[in-house]
Amino acid sequence: MDFSFNDEQRMFRQTLRDFVEKDIIPVARDWEHSGRYPTEIVETMGELGLFGLAIPEEYGGLGADTVSFVLTFEEISRGWMGVAGILGSHSVSCFMIARHGTEEQKRAYLPRLATGELRTGLALTEPGAGTDLQGIRTTARLDGDHYVVNGAKTWITNARYANPLPVLVKTDPSASPAHHGMSVLLVDTTSEGFVVEKDIPKLGYKGTESCELRLDNVRVPKENLLGGVEGKGLGQALSSLETGRVNIAARSVGIAQRAYEEALRYAREREAFGQAIGEFQAVQIKLAEIAIQLQAARLMTYWAASQLDAGVRMDTESGMAKVFSSETALQCALDSMRIHGGYGYSAEFEVERLYRDAPLMAIGEGTNDVLRTVIAKSLLRGKAHVG
Length: 387
Description:
Butyryl-CoA Dehydrogenase, subunit A, domain 3, 3 domains, Butyryl-Coa Dehydrogenase, subunit A, domain 1, two-stranded antiparallel ribbon, 8 strands, alpha+beta, globular, 387 residues, 10 helices, Butyryl-CoA Dehydrogenase, subunit A, domain 2
């Protein structure tokens, strides 16, 4: 059992840390509060090749191992979780295209997605269907050599910048079970009838946009059916969410790490009753608990990533890592805020942003309560084992 990084992973992590310290941390608080889009940060991520994380080398990507993948999201989220979201949705979509696309689709899109010339996202959720994806209402009717798409999507990251945008649709609304009639179409977002209705105002997760979309008779060429076969869409989407969950777990670790760093710094610098508050036992207990939970979440996330690298089906492992790490991020952000006292509630300190960003980690890529039931069912059916 080896808990250490190889030389390549260590060098990659250092490159990421240098980038975060130089280009993200100095501007994150001000840009986040002003609502400014992090254009310069996105451009640097492109220069570093990060948009090609999930793209094989033969198509111009980094072909990164999954441990390096989670290192990326941990380190960037330590600086600004919203920026990690820009890269996260793009990477999950690229993973899906690389795994399930036809050779023509891969060659058409992946090389330019790898450089960041093109960016993408994932349009699954609808106003009436989030966790229950089989309940989506967006339809795609075949008309000659095009599908005609009608429907609405919501909470779509990168909606204003994605092209193509994979959209989950029902190509056969009458199919039973419903997933037999679901497909993914690679939609050109410049098409007539594709409308970004609005940006959703959010508590946190700022820096990237989350949008409502309307598709009104959008015509999509038949060759843009992902994989070229109807009825595979839900499976394609769910398989990509395995990487999405380790992505969320890693982002959660990044939030928790920054919460720990801010709490530790403040406990050393802030004085009360003639001494640093870190000398008080109550503060020490909170600091210790943050550190313990943070390291446990980190190891669980790396474990899930290593399982994927080993070729093991890891829906249960990624679910466990996502649940534990996101709950850890929530608790660590709150405890860090408590250590800061009144200043923790001030927008002039980093911790209030961490406190606003953390709740999304317990919701995105499957709510924690739903994932707990998924994990339990896998255990009961003998599909997963612990110990």
